[in-house]
Design goal:
The protein is of the alpha+beta class. The protein contains three helices and seven strands. Helix content is about 20%, strand content about 45%. A hairpin with a 2-residue loop joins strand 2 (about 30-35) and strand 3 (about 40-50). The longest helix is centred in the first third of the chain and has 13 residues, at about 10-25.
Length: about 150
Amino acid sequence: MATPEGMRELTDSECWELMRANEQQGGGVGRIAVAIMNQPDIFPVNYVVDHGSVIFRTAEGTKLAAAVLGTSVAFEADGYEPEAGEAWSVVIRGRAVELEQVHGRFDAADLPLFPWHASPKNRVVRIEPEIITGRRFVVVEDRRPVD
């Protein structure tokens, strides 16, 4: 597929590699998009990549209910590499599943997932990807007119 100059589409493996690198450089932060009564909403989450999926912790409430009761979610993570002058964005569309079985929760407890917010986040959710897309692009200089 043709892309504008300075932009290229990423392979699935490049998407996962960038998301893993982002999480290792101080914790992965992304956004989960859900539909609540046919209205879109977006929530920031700390995440880790685990076996071809994305895992995040949350508390009971709107985010959890919308994520696991809906038919699908979208998750986005992005980053900027100043030395290369490039940025990237990855979007994952799929199904969110709460990890409720003991073995799944024990496995998730060993992951380096540290939410920034201090409130208890006892629920663990895995996003099982169906579609993953990503782009890397050159960051252009500010082109706003100078007064």
